[in-house]
Every structure is written in C-alpha cells, then in structure tokens.
C-alpha cells in the first residue's frame, strides 16, 4: 500500500495499463491474479517476478542469529513465490505457444556480502528454482531465467547500512569501473523476454559491470 502511488504513476505511462494486487505469500491471490489476466488478455507472453523480502532484523544481525520465522518469511516471499507464480501463469503461456519468465537475483546467493544474510540463502534457492522450473516447462516452450544485477541504488537498498560503500567498490574495482543502472537491467530483460533469447533457459545472466569476474 505504501508504494501503490509510485506503481500507479509508472503504470500510467503504459499504453493500456492494468494494475492488480498480489500478495505472493497467498496461493489464492496468485490464482486470482492469473484468472484476471486470463479474462482480460486471454493469455500471456511473459512475466517478470520482482518480489524479495527479509525482515529487517535479519539484515542487521549476524546471519547465525537468523530466526526460524525470518528464514521462513525470506524463503517464502523471495523464492517460493516464483514457483507459485510460474505454476499459475504457465497455462496462460501455453495458450500462446510458449512464454518467457524472468526473475531478479543478486550474487549474494553465491558469495558472502556483509548483512545480505538470509537474502543470500533465499537467492540461492531462487536461482536453483529457476533451473528446476526451466527443466519442467521447457517442453511447453516456456523459458525461465534470472538477471543477477550489480548493486543499484534503489528504494529497497536505501535503508541498508553500508550500501554506499558497496557502490564505491563497483566504481573502484568492477571491470567497467562503475555500478549498474536500472535501464541497463531493463535492456537485458527486454532480451530475455523476447524471441531474441529463444534458445536461452535456466540461465542466470550477470548484469553487473563485470564484478562477478573479479577475485580480488
Ligand atoms: O535483494 C536485495 C535487497 C532486498 C531486500 C531489501 C530489504 C530492505 C527493507 C529484502 N528485504 C528487505 N527488508 C527490509 O525490511 N538487494 C539485491 C539489494 C541489497 O540489499 C543488501 C545488499 C544489496 C546489494 C543488503 C546487504 C548488503 C548488500
């Protein structure tokens, strides 16, 4: 609700906007969303999953202190939601002869970033889910991929202690000597959602100014 106005402002720039609610922890709301999309459009060509959340205390305290409840919430919202969403939209994509599903991840899934903590564990589960979903849905010509974006100054990141120092490391050490912009992630997303990437599935595409290639 807090961000609804921002979403509506963005959507108003589209040709034929339709804004619908979806709490991704609710199977019912995911089913309702898919039913409305089916009724309004009669099918779907692509879907972008951009949901991620861990309770704030889990991003501040040492990882070893992560509670069972914070772990459950982070994995439910950030990883299971892709499985639930994919299952719901797959029939709409089948009607169109296939489709492309995209999610967003971060390299904190593979390597330790201070304070990323249980989000890293959730992103590891998300990336593995991308591969298992790609395997299940490939025969229906539905592709499932992720973009692993470099650190970007976003609203979600603004509350994170030490985030500006992460951006500075990108400027100092990434092969391109800079961090990443949202428009650059959008361009990669356009590729993965379009037939230009028709033979690409189960892939985690690094859009990170080359930071992943650096050891030290
Ligand atoms: O995935 C993320 C962060 C997503 C996120 C953000 C918040 C802030 C508010 C998930 N849950 C919450 N919970 C809240 O209460 N990123 C890729 C951005 C990010 O977050 C970091 C990073 C980076 C990069 C946290 C610590 C270190 C690096």
Produce a short descriptive summary.
By secondary structure, the protein is of the alpha/beta class. The protein has seven helices and four strands. It binds ligand 0WE.
Hetero ligands: ligand 0WE
Q: Terminal Cα separation, in Å?
A: 42 Å
Kindly report the average pLDDT value. 96
Approximate helicity band: 40-55%
Strand order of the largest sheet: 1-2-3-4
Contiguous runs where pLDDT drops below 50 for at least 5 residues:
none
Number of helices: 7
Q: How large, in whole angstroms, is the Cα Rg?
A: 18 Å
| Number of E-type strands | 4
Structural class: alpha/beta
Task: Report on the architecture of this protein.
It is a single chain. This protein has 216 residues and is α/β, with parallel strands linked by helices. 45% of the residues lie in helices and 11% in strands. The protein has helices at residues 4-11, 27-41, 68-94, 118-137, 155-158, 163-173, 182-193, and strands at 46-49, 99-105, 142-149, 204-207. The chain has a 4-stranded parallel β-sheet with strand order 1-2-3-4, sandwiched between helices. Strand 2 (99-105), helix 4 (118-137) and strand 3 (142-149) form a beta-alpha-beta unit. Helix 2 runs parallel beside helix 3 and helix 3 (68-94) packs parallel to helix 4 (118-137). The longest helix is centred in the middle third of the chain and has 27 residues, at 68-94. The chain is globular and about 50 Å long. The mean pLDDT is 96. Bound molecules: ligand 0WE. Ligand 0WE binds next to helix 5.
